[in-house]
Amino acid sequence: MTRPTPHPELPHGPLSGLKVVEICSTIAGPACARLLGDFGAEVIKIEPPEGDPVRQMGQHVDNVSLYAASILRNKRSVALDLKTPQGRAVAAELIARADILVENNRPGVMERLGLGYDALSERNPGLVMVRISGYGQDGPYSERPGYGAICEAVGGVRHMTGDPDRPPARVALATTDYLSSVYAAFGAMAAIRARAITGRGQVVDVALYEAAFSQMEPIVPAHDKLGVVPMREGSNLPSMAPNSSYPTADGGWVLIAANSQPTWRRLVGLMQQPELLTDPRFETIQARGRPENMKAIDAIIGAWSRTFDGGVLEQMLRDAEVPTSRVYTIADIYADPHFAARQMLQAVPHPTLGHTTQMGVVPRLSATPGGIRHTGPDLGADGVAVLKESLALETEAIEALIAAQALRTPSH
């Protein structure tokens, strides 16, 4: 497949022309707005004078947050103190000119600032307001603070993560925040599509616990009809075997997924253990999926896999057309030719570090691809330019905002 080339009428992506204001912190909201920005939307990020806490997260080089350089990319930073009336007034003016507002404050905070949807939509009836919170905008839990990890517990995901003989584990990544950000971006685009028909905007209500809960799709009807309360399966796929990580001679792990009957037969042939094909415990997909049989087949495959180094075993399985992969570290990813060919590691220029390597744009569009136009800006770096360009404020008015401590710029 040839590399995608931009459409000449959409130089920055298919969302060119959409104006987005982001009033968010940490992960789910900024990731949603970053996704919109990757595909060409103009994103103005309103930050408090101390900056989004994400600027303090992750690894730093020369006091530069590498995480912020990525998750704040393709955005313009305006540092406003929304506790001041002047700061709130400027935010309201920016939102009045926006297509989409993304916010992830606790329900009620925006209303107390005078920036609730009812007030904003009076001036801007076409506004789409994306609201990301732990438990949604209504319901008995709506005012609880909710982080992704907490909402995974409420959504049933934490109960399903880890080994059955150990306490519930967590994935050391913000999986629920990123899943929520994709739902939020999808909701924003659905609302923009509806606006094209009705002429009016609406609220997109995304709850972290519901995004987590959506992964429980097969478990919901099974509990209703059968009363099933499944337990953690460790590295296995529930009711499907062999599909797990298996040890190798060099201390690594290889994931083997022989889900279908033809693939299972190919794996058995590679293992040179034909008796497994007639063993009643392993003859069918359903039989292999029974808990006691899963343990048995995993033990047999594990005993076989640990006689080979990871790279050798991986190639043997690929040659036999058995889906497999070594369990990659980030170092493996940097060395992998497929990531390079798919542009999933991109060197993005940075004003003080030279460059940072960031993950590529997902998904890939063949005719109107997204792209990385610039790295995440310094706190408040674009405040003066945005207020001049978007609100036509004169220098004197901007200096008054700075004097009132409603606006922060890098030099103030």
TrEMBL record:
Give the superkingdom in one word: Bacteria
Check the record and name the Gene3D superfamilies matching this protein: Crotonobetainyl-coa:carnitine coa-transferase, domain 1, formyl-coa transferase, domain 3
Q: Name one GO molecular function term.
A: transferase activity
Kindly give the Pfam families that the UniProt entry links to this protein. Answer: CoA_transf_3
Keyword field contains Transferase: yes
Q: What keyword terms does UniProt attach to this protein?
A: Transferase
Keyword Transcription regulation found:
no
What the entry lists under PANTHER family is as follows: SUCCINATE--HYDROXYMETHYLGLUTARATE COA-TRANSFERASE
Query: What name has this protein been given in UniProt?
Result: CoA transferase
User: Which species expresses this protein natively?
Assistant: Hydrogenophaga electricum
